[in-house]
């Protein structure tokens, strides 16, 4: 009986490394949470018109952007002038990783961000101080609306103004000279809005006179709606359109039926 109790105590004893591992996990979780909270708080409190913010952005710009855009943002043969580009343009280009460019090409490619959100906003503040330009969007216009009316209006506007390049399903499409309209799935609402007001690369500018802020918000609502909808027809085939999809059915589908018929006939003979 005494031996059984002794064995029970032994089996319930913790491994010496268990406590150290538990403490290590706790420190990692606490540190990650603190870092995320600190960065979020700093971003939320940043003032784009503060001289300190503009000065910090100027230093970042001089170290990372001036080689192509010039020390005074006046532009060079390798990069356009940013005077009048506005905060929205910087937040879009840097926030999506398109800038700084990985290499010279037909257009900037999306890649992981090189700067934190706070640093991006500091550079946006500096560029905004150089001249008037598109500002960061109001938060009320980058919240996806779940109402049927807003989604329907956004769908109509998207098909009229955007689908010829981005495809009606927003999966992107090819343009000329190696350029392309990117897919819009997974893109942050803020960046979609900023693209509309700044017209990056091959995209036209949709000012508030062309598409009102509320209509821009409806377009965002439509894009987020179709992004979360399943392909009710089964395989979407990349949503490349009825002509290509019909050709696929005729060539692959009908070809398979003909091939099966020939195989069955040959086997029976």
UniProtKB/TrEMBL annotation:
Output the superkingdom of the source species.
Answer: Bacteria
Tell me yes or no: is Transmembrane helix among this UniProt entry's keywords.
Answer: yes
Q: Where does heme c 1 bind?
A: 65, 68-69
Self-association or partners: how does it assemble? The cytochrome bc1 complex is composed of a cytochrome b (QcrB), the Rieske iron-sulfur protein (QcrA) and a diheme cytochrome c (QcrC) subunit.
Compartments, as annotated in UniProt: Cell membrane
Q: Which organism is it from?
A: Leucobacter exalbidus
> Per its record, what are the GO molecular function terms?
heme binding; iron ion binding; quinol-cytochrome-c reductase activity
Domain Cytochrome c, first and last residues per copy: 52-131, 149-227
Which reaction does this chain catalyze? a quinol + 2 Fe(III)-[cytochrome c](out) = a quinone + 2 Fe(II)-[cytochrome c](out) + 2 H(+)(out)
Name of the protein described by the UniProt record: Cytochrome bc1 complex cytochrome c subunit
Choose one Gene Ontology CC annotation of this protein and give it.
plasma membrane
Binding positions for heme c 2 per the UniProt entry: 162, 165-166
Its keywords, alphabetically, are: Cell membrane, Electron transport, Heme, Iron, Membrane, Metal-binding, Repeat, Respiratory chain, Translocase, Transmembrane, Transmembrane helix, Transport
Bilayer disposition of the protein: Multi-pass membrane protein
Query: What start-end ranges are recorded for coiled-coil regions in this protein?
Result: none
Q: How is it modified after translation?
A: Binds 2 heme c groups covalently per subunit.
Give TM segment ranges.
247-266
Enzyme Commission designation = 7.1.1.8
């Amino acid at each position: 009986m005494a031996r059984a109790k002794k064995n029970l105590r032994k089996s319930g004893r913790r491994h010496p490394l268990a406590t150290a591992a538990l403490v290590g996990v706790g420190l990692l979780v606490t540190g990650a949470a603190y870092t995320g909270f600190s960065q979020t708080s700093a971003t939320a409190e940043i003032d784009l018109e503060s001289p300190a913010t503009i000065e910090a952005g100027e230093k970042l710009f001089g170290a990372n952007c001036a080689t192509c855009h010039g020390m005074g943002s006046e532009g060079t043969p390798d990069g356009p002038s940013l005077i009048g580009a506005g905060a929205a343009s910087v937040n879009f280009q840097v926030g999506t990783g398109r800038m700084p460019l990985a290499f010279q090409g037909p257009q900037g490619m999306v890649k992981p961000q090189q700067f934190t959100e706070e640093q991006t906003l500091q550079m946006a503040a500096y560029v905004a101080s150089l001249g008037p330009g598109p500002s960061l969007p109001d938060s009320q216009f980058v919240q996806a609306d779940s109402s049927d009316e807003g989604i329907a209006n956004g769908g109509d506007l998207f098909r009229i103004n955007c689908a010829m390049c981005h495809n009606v399903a927003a999966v992107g499409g090819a343009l000329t000279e190696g350029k392309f309209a990117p897919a819009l799935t997974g893109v942050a609402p803020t960046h979609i809005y900023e693209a509309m007001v700044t017209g990056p690369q091959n995209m036209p500018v949709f000012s508030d006179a062309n598409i009102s802020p509320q209509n821009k918000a409806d377009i965002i609502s439509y894009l987020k709606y179709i992004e979360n909808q399943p392909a009710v027809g089964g395989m979407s085939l990349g949503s490349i359109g009825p002509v290509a999809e019909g050709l696929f059915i005729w060539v692959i589908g009908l070809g398979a039926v003909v091939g099966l018929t020939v195989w069955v006939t040959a086997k029976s003979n």
